[in-house]
Amino acid sequence: MKAELAAKGVKITILSNSLGYSREYIGRMMKKDSNPGITDLLRVCDAAEISFVYVFTGKRENPAFDGVFNEMSKLTQKELKALKEHLQSEPMQAEAIEGPGKT
């Protein structure tokens, strides 16, 4: 769950405030050996817009993204912000290549 939240840029403090949970409780939910209630887990996943199936089972609907999310979880907040800004920027456009005989 921690990697998913980091990949989405979700702040634990904001998430906990919106759900009415303490920041500490959300933090404990993210520990590897934690055992949060399923209702709480569903609420957190729904509020953060992350995959409950992945958090609960460790399996994605599209496993091709596993490596991407794993690497994203290693980024600093500054790096995540820069990546987010880059992804939200205008898409690159192919430019026409001009040369002899080309118009």
Automatic annotation (TrEMBL):
GO molecular function, one term: DNA binding
Top-level taxon in the UniProt lineage: Bacteria
InterPro entries, per the entry: Lambda_DNA-bd_dom_sf (IPR010982)
Gene3D superfamilies assigned: lambda repressor-like DNA-binding domains
Record-given protein name: XRE family transcriptional regulator
Organism classification: Bacteria, Pseudomonadati, Pseudomonadota, Alphaproteobacteria, Rhodobacterales
